[in-house]
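FAQ

Q: What does a record look like?
A: Structure on top, sequence underneath. For example:
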């Protein structure tokens, strides 16, 4: 009997998510493997007619501390960490243990518990797995002699390979170990982020982690590979639906994400439309109807809108879709679509139609640099016209107040140096990404196809000189909105006063690099 026991292979299975695990366990059992398991998994497998060796039967030690300790034992970790050499096998024999050659484990659902974090710290702590990650790390360390599986996608191919070929390649073992360590790192990062939530201090260590959600068409350029990773399952990009069109690219994801964030800044009770091209707004408007909002947004810069991404804050209706029918766009984003609108778009097979729920706010901004990354709080501050400081004697008309607030919501999405001009809650000129602020002013004016008289010009940062005010005055721009804070603020204010321009200081800068 002892000889037969030595010859039998053992798999330790302990999973919270039990998707098809009984099928895998049965395949192993039918091919001579013994199944070692714990608590809920053991019960589930036994209910599915699979014979199980309970961990407690091996350790001769019951689960303690409300289940906090059950697998943390030398008779479990020894067989996982043992190499298949003479010395290690002899040591196992001395303690009457048998080599565990396969570990299939996933963890307590801390990620799911985040949806219920209002239950408090004690609830969250009890959803932190200790034994599972410990076993996975042990198996992954010993991947040459212990196979580790954490991803349900790997269950069937790995087990079938084991049954047919009696083993898997060292390359595959290493790949599974890498995935296991990444999985434990991702899991730990969720816990670390949760514990950091109420701590305003920047941590000494931080992880950027995520789960691959999509392989993208390509990166910024076709020769670059790219994938979409999600770290928060509440992300709109985790829950979006692509209703038609080609596979998304890296640039599509960047632009549609920006469209999403712009929309989140506007009242869902108003009809708002936004067009983005290369990470800059090139059209935006609020109007009485969705169709009019789109038409006004498009009229800002029809040339730049070609091949752009369009977003709406309300379900897209048939009338708007009909207006969009003859224009080439890469992606359309809305919270929903009328059936008739989808029929119209269906004739353009390559057009990507994205349905996304609104409301998610990202609070972290991360930018990679060679060998590291920069982390900051995201620029989520909302426009508040009541706190703007009027520096000149000319008072604003009601529509100008609306334009100042409308424009300040948009300017933070324009690459620095950023200038926009708005009129009647409509974007009519954009100057973006210039090294000189006055150049951005001149480009915004030059690009505009509308009369600038009575319009509002907004700048993402202060004017270092009065020259931009002089240019604005030539075109009869009535209102200028900027953060203030220049050593030449007095000169800028004086120039605005001399030209009867309402100059508002916001006290807030919106650089976007």
């Amino acid at each position: 009997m002892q000889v037969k026991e030595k010859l039998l292979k053992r798999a330790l299975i302990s999973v919270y998510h039990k998707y098809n695990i009984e099928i895998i366990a049965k395949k192993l059992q039918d091919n001579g493997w013994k199944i070692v398991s714990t608590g809920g998994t053991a019960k589930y497998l036994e209910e599915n007619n699979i014979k199980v060796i309970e961990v407690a039967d091996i350790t001769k030690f019951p689960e303690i501390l409300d289940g906090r300790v059950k697998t943390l034992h030398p008779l479990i970790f020894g067989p996982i960490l043992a190499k298949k050499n003479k010395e290690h096998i002899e040591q196992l024999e001395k303690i009457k243990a048998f080599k565990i050659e396969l570990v299939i484990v996933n963890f307590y659902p801390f990620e799911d518990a985040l949806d219920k974090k209002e239950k408090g710290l004690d609830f969250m702590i009890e959803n932190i797995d200790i034994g599972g990650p410990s076993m996975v790390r042990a198996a992954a360390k010993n991947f040459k002699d212990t196979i580790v599986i954490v991803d349900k996608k790997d269950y069937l191919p790995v087990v079938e390979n084991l049954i047919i070929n009696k083993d898997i390649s060292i390359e595959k073992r290493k790949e599974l170990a890498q995935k296991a360590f990444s999985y434990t790192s991702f899991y730990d990062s969720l816990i670390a982020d949760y514990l950091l939530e109420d701590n305003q201090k920047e941590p000494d260590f931080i992880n950027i982690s995520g789960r691959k959600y999509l392989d993208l068409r390509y990166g910024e350029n076709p020769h670059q590979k790219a994938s979409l990773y999600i770290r928060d399952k509440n992300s709109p990009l985790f829950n979006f639906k692509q209703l038609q069109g080609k596979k998304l690219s890296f640039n599509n994801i960047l632009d549609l994400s920006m469209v999403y964030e712009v929309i989140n800044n506007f009242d869902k009770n108003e009809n708002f439309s936004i067009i983005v091209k290369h990470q800059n707004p090139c059209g935006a408007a609020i109007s009485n109807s969705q169709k009019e909002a789109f038409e006004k947004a498009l009229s800002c810069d029809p040339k730049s809108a070609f091949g752009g991404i369009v977003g709406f804050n309300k379900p897209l209706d048939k009338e708007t879709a009909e207006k969009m029918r003859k224009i080439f766009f890469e992606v359309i984003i809305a919270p929903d679509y009328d059936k008739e609108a989808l029929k119209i778009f269906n004739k353009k097979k390559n057009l990507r139609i994205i349905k996304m729920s609104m409301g998610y706010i990202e609070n972290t901004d991360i930018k990679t640099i060679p060998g590291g990354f920069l982390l900051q709080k995201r620029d989520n501050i909302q426009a508040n016209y009541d706190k703007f400081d009027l520096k000149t004697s000319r008072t604003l008309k009601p529509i100008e107040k609306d334009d100042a607030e409308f424009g300040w919501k948009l300017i933070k999405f324009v690459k620095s140096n950023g200038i926009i001009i708005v009129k009647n809650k409509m974007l009519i000129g954009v100057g973006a990404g210039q090294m000189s602020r006055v150049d951005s002013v001149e480009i915004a004016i030059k690009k505009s196809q509308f009369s600038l008289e009575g319009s509002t010009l907004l700048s993402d940062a202060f004017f270092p000189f009065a020259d931009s005010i002089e240019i604005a005055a030539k075109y009869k721009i009535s209102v200028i909105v900027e953060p203030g804070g220049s050593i030449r603020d007095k000169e800028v204010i004086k120039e605005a006063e001399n030209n009867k321009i309402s100059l508002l200081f916001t006290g807030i800068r919106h650089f976007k690099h």
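Q: Is there anything notable about this one?
A: The first helix runs from residue 2 to 7.
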